[in-house]
Structures are given as C-alpha cells and as structure tokens.
C-alpha cells in the first residue's frame, strides 16, 4: 500500500467514525490538556473516555488495551483522591522527578506487564497483534501509575504509549482514535516540557 492509498484509507476511516468513538476521543484529548495544566479535572474527563474505550477495545479485539482502559478508570479514581488531598489548605502532592530506584521499579513493572500481557494474549485470546498490544498496554500501565503520583516521567511513558498506539489502532479500523494518539503524542511532549518547567520553578 503506497502513501496515497494509506492517506485515502485514513480519511475514509475518520469519516466512518462512530459517535461513541468520537466522544471517547474528544474527552481523551480534553483529559490530557487538563493533565498538562496539572488540573484535577484530568480525572473525571478521563474516566468518560476510558469507560467508552473499554467497550470499543473489546469489540475491536484489543483485549490488552481494554484492560488498560479498565486500569485507567480505577487509577483515575485513585489519582483523583490523591490529587485532591490537602493539608492546611495546601496540595499535598507535587510534581517530582523519579529517583534511580524508582526508575528501576518502573522498568521492572513495565517489562513484567509486557511479558504477562503478551503471554495471556498469545495463548488465551484471538488477538492478532499480541506483542504490539501488550507493549502499548504495558507502557500505558506504567504511565498511569506515575501520573497518579505526579512523577515527571509519566510523560515519557505516554510518549512511548502514543507512538505504539498510532499504528495499533489504525490497523484495527479505529482511524480517528489513531489520529487522537498523534495529537496526544504532541500534547505529551508539551506536557513533559511544561512539567519540567514547573519543577524548576517550584524547586521539587
């Protein structure tokens, strides 16, 4: 398939976007915009998107991604609580960088999730992309975990997730969602820059 055919198929795919997918994409982008601003509304808007994607991923046979969105929903509730915590009127949780030890834990967590997801998808589902699906899901698990803790590095994992998800969703027929991940990739890079500046300004 040449570039022209790919672009044509992509445009046709976007035209065929269902209302459900459209709503999920819009709220997903809104959620990331709030995250970049360190605004707690990242969580309620994100929950709307992730709940819709649980359904969309199941019917698209992206089982690991469905599990990711279920995980997103649970972690969004936990993150919402953590971000809302205050002491003497001040926010308790601040943006910080991961230590070497925390980086090690993240990498082990990511690799462990990827291996487990790949094996489950390969042997217990009819997924045709278990390796890619598992990779995107594992990086997303890691990113969400760090986001709830307001770790700067969450944006690095979101960048990885978005890069992996663009082709993954495209080949499964979710062209508009694939485009969403392209937008989210740009926003993740911007988020990394914004949070880095906040850390420098606040001295955390």
From TrEMBL:
Alphabetically ordered keywords of this record: Cell membrane, Membrane, Transmembrane, Transmembrane helix, Transport
InterPro entries in alphabetical order: NMN_transpt_PnuC
Its membrane topology: Multi-pass membrane protein
Subcellular location(s) of the protein: Cell membrane
Transmembrane feature ranges: 16-34, 41-63, 69-85, 106-125, 155-171, 177-195
Pfam families xref list: NMN_transporter (PF04973)
Major localization listed first in the record, in broad terms: membrane
Function: Required for nicotinamide riboside transport across the inner membrane.
Stated family: Belongs to the nicotinamide ribonucleoside (NR) uptake permease (TC 4.B.1) family.
Protein name in the entry: Nicotinamide riboside transporter PnuC
Organism: Pinibacter soli
């Amino acid at each position: 398939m040449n570039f022209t055919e790919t672009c044509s198929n992509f445009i046709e795919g976007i035209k065929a976007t269902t209302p459900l997918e459209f709503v999920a994409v819009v709220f997903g982008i809104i959620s990331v915009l709030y995250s970049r601003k360190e605004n707690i509304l990242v969580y309620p808007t994100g929950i709307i998107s992730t709940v819709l994607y649980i359904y969309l991923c199941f019917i698209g046979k992206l089982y690991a991604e469905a599990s990711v969105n279920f995980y997103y929903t649970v972690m969004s509730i936990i993150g919402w609580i953590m971000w809302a915590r205050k002491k003497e009127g001040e926010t308790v949780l601040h943006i910080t960088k991961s230590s070497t030890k925390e980086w090690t834990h993240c990498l082990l967590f990511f690799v462990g999730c990827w291996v487990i997801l790949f094996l489950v998808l390969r042997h217990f589902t009819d997924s045709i992309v278990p390796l890619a699906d598992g990779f995107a899901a594992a990086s997303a698990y890691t990113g969400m975990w760090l986001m709830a803790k307001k770790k700067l590095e969450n944006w690095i994992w979101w960048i990885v997730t978005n890069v992996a998800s663009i082709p993954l969703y495209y080949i499964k027929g979710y062209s508009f969602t694939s485009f969403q991940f392209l937008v989210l990739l740009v926003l993740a890079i911007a988020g990394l820059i914004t949070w880095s500046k906040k850390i420098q300004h606040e001295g955390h």
